[in-house]
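Task 17 of the worksheet. Students: predict the tertiary structure of the chain below and write it out as structure tokens. Keep your answer in the requested format; marks are given for formatting as well as content.
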Amino acid sequence: MSTLRTAPSLGPLLARGALLSPFKRPGPGAAFDGEPLVLSGLRIDVDRLARYERVCGFTPGGDGLPLTYPHVLGFPSAMALMSGRAFPLPLLGLVHTSIGITRHRALPTTGTYELTVYVDHLAPHRRGTQASVVTELRETGESAAVWESTSTYLARHRTTTATTGAPQEPDPLPAPLPVLDEWRLGGDVGRRYGAVSGDRNPIHLHPLTARLFGFPRAVAHGMWTVARCLAAHGTPPAVLAHADFRAPVLLPGTVVYAADGDRFELRRPGDDGRIHVSGRVEALR
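Model answer:
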């Protein structure tokens, strides 16, 4: 494992990943054995946290970290791994397809933490190759993680072999959930979330930069959409949450939030009802 003194800077990592992407040609046998990255002595910037809470709809000044906030803390380390020369998948075009989060207890904002990020494995997918990236958060001095997540990222490319047993699309959804709210999203949502998360991917910032990558308008960050849904749904201190990112949310735009019991979804209003995000929240026993 490699120990970091400070969190990596996202800007240079995104630039490095973009420059190296054209030289990466992933195939069905792609593999990666990079060392985990560990950042110790991590303390929470409460001003940044408050801005994040406001952007995502969490109640500011709560006693603990929002469920999704450790992902923001670990994202620079994940980018350090995935933008490197040894990582076989191109960063440009890599799609965040799902995230699963487990929180074993509330995380105090005054705590000191150790953050570990690693690529667990690569797997063939019927549309290309999928990477599973694990983030673990520990309170200083403890061996067991108090928070952990697994994000899946898909690199699309031609597949030449059968992918029996490989990860496929999310399960089809049952009947639509009842609508609880309608959200009108401004064109600046991507810029506001990018400012607090550090993720300033051009597709999220402005229509002109989004069009360079094939989008008609800017696209909301997937992790903003799931954070906004979880803020509306609510989460117990010990919880398991999972979300599948099914379709991009264009900005500006209008979406509806729907939920019933432990399930939630974000979808397009009206009869079309295209689902952008679907997920569930389960209390840990």
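Marker's comment: Helices lie at 10-20, 46-56, 69-82, 189-197, 207-211, 222-233. Residues 187 and 252 are 4 Å apart (CA to CA).
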